[in-house]
Amino acid sequence: MAPTDHTSGDIESTLTDAELLPPGSPDWITAARVRETLRFWQPRYGGTLTPKDAVEILVNVRRWANFFVEMAMSDADNEHPSTER
Fold first, then answer.
1. What tens digit of pLDDT does each residue of 32-53 get?
2. Is residue 60 a contact partner of residue 33, using CB atoms and an 8 Å limit?
3. What b/e readout covers 48-77, taking b as 16+ CB neighbours within 10 angstroms?
4. Is the pLDDT of residue 8 over 60?
5. If you placed Cys at 34, which of 20, 22, 29, 52 could pair as Cys (CB 3.0 to 4.6 Å)?
């Protein structure tokens, strides 16, 4: 079972790769990505983040990025309308 009481920066170093990947995590999320997300966000968050929190952050960032890519592609399509009628 994963430890629950951690100080900033130690959770990612004390858990195994299997413990860093909560059940149901998307396939594109790796233990290394969870570990790096925890290392980056833990000092900025002000509270204890769990691997599940890191997965949620990664999923939300990917959704945000996909949204902006879709918007940029839509804008590009609107700037260069098709000449076919």
1. 999 999 999 999 998 899 999 9
2. no
3. ebbbbbbbebbeeeeeeeeeeeeeeeeeee
4. no
5. 20
* Rounded Cα–Cα distance for residues 53 and 39 (Å): 12
Residues 6+ apart with CB under 8 A from 12: 20, 34, 35, 38, 39, 42
Structure tokens at 54: 């890191």
Tell me if 34 sits within 8 A of 51, measured CB to CB.
yes
- Which residue is listed with tokens 């998307």? 26
Read off the tokens for 63: 């959704």
Q: Dihedral (C-alpha) 34, 56, 11, 40: value to the nearest 10 degrees? A: 70
pLDDT for res 82: 59
pTM over 0.85: no
